[in-house]
Amino acid sequence: MSKSLTESIIVPIANQEDAQATATALEPYDVGDITILYVVEKGEGVPDKTPVEQSKQVASESFDIFKETFPEAKTETTYQRNVVAGIIEAARDVDASAIAFRPRGGARIRQFLAGDRSLRLITEAERPVIALSVEVDE
C-alpha cells in the first residue's frame, strides 16, 4: 500500500525567524499532518550552547510563530548533541512520511568546518527529505 510523501511530515526549526520563513515556504503546498521539531543541542559533558530554559523559551516562541500559519501542527522537542541525529530520531519516533526543512545558509567555510547539516540530513535520513525553497514567489 502506498502512502503520500507529505502525509505526515516533520519540520525542524531553529529559531523564531526560521519558524516564520519555514512556515511561509511550506504554506503553498498541500501537506497532511505536520509536526514541528525543535532540537535542543546538549553538551554531553561540556557546557550546553545555551541554557536549557532559554532553549525551551526559544522553542515555545518558535512553535507559536509557525502555528500562526499551521495552527493544527503538533510540536516536539528533543535533546541531542547531534542535531541531525535528533531530527532523524524524531522523524522515526513520530513515523513521519518525510522530513521537510528550509536550508539554512551561512559561510561556506563555516559549513565546511562544522559539517554541512543539510547534506548530512539528506544523506543520513532513512526517509525522504524535502528541501523547501529559500526564495518565496510573490
UniProtKB/TrEMBL annotation:
Pfam family, one: Usp
Record InterPro entries: Rossmann-like_a/b/a_fold, UspA
Domain UspA residue range list: 8-131
Top-level taxon of the source organism: Archaea
Protein name, UniProt field: Universal stress protein
Organism field: Halocatena marina
